[in-house]
Amino acid sequence: MVKLSLNMGGDGTFIGSGEWPDIVANREAYREQGLLPRYLKAPLIGLWEITGRCNLRCVYCYNESPRTPPDLEWPIMERLAQEFIKMRIFSACVSGGEPTLHPRYIDILRLLHEGGISVGTITNGWTMTPELARSMIRYAGSAQVSLDGPSAEVHDRVRGRQGSFQRAVRAIRLLRDAGFKEVSVSFAATRLNVDSFPEMPEFCAGLGVASLRTQPLAMVGRARGETDLEPTPEQTRRQDEFLKASGGKYGDLKIEWGDPSVHVTIGLGLGMAVAVRITQNGDFGLTPYYPIYFGNAREAGLAEVWEQGLRLGWEYEAVRTLLGGAQKCPVLRAQPELEKPLHIAVTAPRSS
Amino acid sequence: MNALDVTDKPRLRPLRWRWDGEEGQHIAVAVPNPGGIYFLNPSAAKIFAACDGTKTVAELAGILVEAYEIGLEQAVKDTVKVLDLWREMDMLQ
User: Fold this and answer.
1) How far apart are CA A278 and CA A97, in angstroms?
2) What is the side-by-side strand order in the sheet with B37-40?
3) Which run of H or of E encompasses B42?
4) What is the pTM of this model?
5) Which terminal Cβ of chain A has fewer Cβ within 10 Å, N or C?
6) Which residue, among B15, B17, B18, would best test binding to A if mutated, counting the most A CBs under 10 Å from its CB?
């Protein structure tokens, strides 16, 4: 019995299981024992960025929201949700942009939930109201609020809008009041805020947060090339030390550290995809961090794209060449070749 | 926790799962404890799919005997081992 999943961080990142290095290192032995297939019939996880709209402008945003390409039309979104259900995808993470800005946000949560999918969602909290929180809890099992500091001074600077700290904290309270047991907080460690991280656990515990997640900054998207955003080695060392010493000190609060490069290492190591990313304009991708796409929902269904190539997307030569350097790299970086999206053709041209 | 007897009829909890892998012989299942999605190899998948509370442990082991031409004793041992694991993972009622 092999644990195949990666726990999904709220920002669409993955937190690796300790079993993975062994599975990757002994992939053929696992396959010979029948423990590991060559590919999956469907993704285990769907990371769905339902809108490019965003009311903040975070300094490190991995997908550079707000984005201008139009969101998918509702009938296509509805069809995608049905495909998630039909393909028996286990869990979906509904994000953006800021997903609550999408007029059909709750409808998406509802469709997925009613189809038996475990639904999580991510918000910056700006639009949260008691009514919205109550609607969300009907269909989402977990909610993550991005909180990049324990004070307005720190958080607002990182998130690019004054007042965003107060809104995020209020959102956490409203989600808790609505009954969410699994409210988590994500903290993206940048040079601007990482020194305040030691104040975060107590602050989050006081808000009733279930888990606090942090990870090294991925130097992609808006952070690409912004070396001034990257924590210094000394800052990283101090955060690491703090994390190592913090276990069990904050009651029920779980403190999780994720390495955004793990999913790249695993993907390249196994070849098969376990997750699909869907961007707001319908591109199907392997990873939230790199703009490598295998078809678009406006042209083909997820099942079709999965079967025709996405399920083994990590084995494509172009992917291996471009992302090989990201393996076991402490900080994900954008290769110059990936400054523009790479669209890999997997579907045969359709006859008119 | 009592040891499983060959006359017990284990039944799975309602779990989210699907047949998976290139041949459709594996099972991917969302496990409540410790959480996460696990993959069952084809032999475990056969037991899983038959674990509906109507078959005894001995009958479940018989599925392995038939599929893999192994002795009943070994099959019972393997079946009990996997069922014990599933009990620990809160997969059984």
Assistant:
1) 12
2) A2-3, B37-40, B26-30, B17-20
3) helix B42-50
4) 0.90
5) C
6) B18
pLDDT per residue as tens digits for the range A125-170 = 999 999 999 999 999 999 999 999 999 999 999 999 999 999 999 9
Beta strands in A261-339 (DSSP E): 275-278, 283-285, 292-296
Q: Please name the residue of chain A whose CA is at the shortest distance from the CA of residue B43.
A: A34
d(CA A273, CA A17): 16
Residues 6+ apart with CB under 8 A from A189: A197, A214, A215, A216, A217, A231, A235, A236, A239
Distance CA B53, CA B75 (A): 19
Q: Which amino acid is at A38?
A: R
Pairwise CA distance, residues A153 & B15, whole Å: 45
Q: Using an 8 Å CB-CB cutoff, list chain B residues near A37.
A: 20-23, 26, 39
Nearest residue on chain B to A31, alpha-carbon basis? B41
Long-range contacts of A164-170 (CB under 8 A, 24+ apart): A164/A56, A164/A124, A164/A125, A164/A126, A167/A124, A167/A125, A167/A126, A167/A128, A168/A124, A168/A125, A168/A126, A169/A125, A169/A207, A170/A125, A170/A128
CATH number at residue B62: 1.10.10
DSSP string, B50-69: H-BSSS-HHHHHHHHHHHH-
How near does any CA of chain A get to the CA of B23, in Å? 8
Identify the helix (H) or strand (E) that includes residue A8: strand A7-8
Q: How far is CA A4 from CA A11, A168, A303, in A?
A: 20, 33, 20
Q: Which residues on B lie below 8 Å from A4 (Cβ)?
A: 28, 37-39
For B30-73, write each residue's pLDDT tens digit.
988 877 888 888 899 999 999 999 999 999 999 999 998 899 99
Are A255 and A236 in contact by the 8 Å Cβ rule? The answer is no
The predicted-structure confidence for A284-300, as pLDDT tens digits, reads as follows 999 988 889 999 999 99
Tokens for A225, please give them: 């090339």
Tokens (6 digits) for A121: 């969602």
Alpha-carbon span B12 to B52, nearest angstrom = 6
Instruction: Name beta bridge partners: A15.
Output: A7
The rounded percent of chain A whose pLDDT value lies above 90 is: 64
State the complex-level ipTM.
0.90
3-state secondary structure of A10: coil
User: Does any domain span residue B65?
Assistant: yes
Q: What is the CATH number of domain A7-343?
A: 3.20.20.70
The residues of B whose Cβ lies within 8 A of any Cβ of A are 16, 18-26, 28, 30, 35-44, 82, 85
How many domains are there within chain B?
Answer: 1
